[in-house]
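Session log. Operator J.P. requested a structure for one protein chain; no other inputs attached. Running the standard single-chain path with token output.
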Amino acid sequence: MGEDREVKKNNSSEASVQNILGWMFGIIFILAALGSFASKSFLTGIILLIIVLVILPPIKVLLKNKFNFELHKGLKIGIIVVALIIAITITSNTESEKTNQEFKNTTTESVAVKDTRNYINKTYDDLWSVFSPRSQYTNLQKEAIFDEQYKYKYVRWTGIVKDVDASILDNLILSVEQRPKDQFDFYGGDMSIYMRRDQYDKLIKLSKGDIVTYVAKFQSFGGFIGTTFYLEDGILE
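Structure written below.
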């Protein structure tokens, strides 16, 4: 008799522990299911609710009293493990799809921004053949050509760093030499590029004589003896 009472006591204690664990994990999975529904992961939410039905104590009692049906411990564990694997797989695939979509959106936005720039399909030699002080064009013709073919349009060119400076208004200015010149060549042809503020970290690393590729938008040209071209919205590539 004493042994029977001890066995019953142990069984009762085990049942109490199982009920506590059932409630604890049941509530956790209910909250997880609600979170899945809130994030529109409906299939994951349904799978988590199935786990709730398996482990929540009142459901166990209802099934036993009304339908005389009871899941064995091993079968419960199997259902829970399989359901969790499916839920994790679905969630992982969903997150992967979201990441891929975000990457595509970001790439599309970047391309769209780049496409809005109006690039000209001309080389520096094309430019210099017109605006060189030795060219056949008059100043009036140069103004007209610049306004029509270059002004407010972007170029992506490569040149040699002459200097990097800041103006009185704290603008970052990159001076680029586009053609080699000897010491008696005062005809100019250099680019004075007003750079974006976010280019500071790149500009601070440049030294005279470095070769750089830049993107910038033409604004004007001028000069007393030689010719200098002024550009803005500059970035380094």
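Operator note: Strands lie at 154-166, 172-177, 188-195, 211-222, 227-236.
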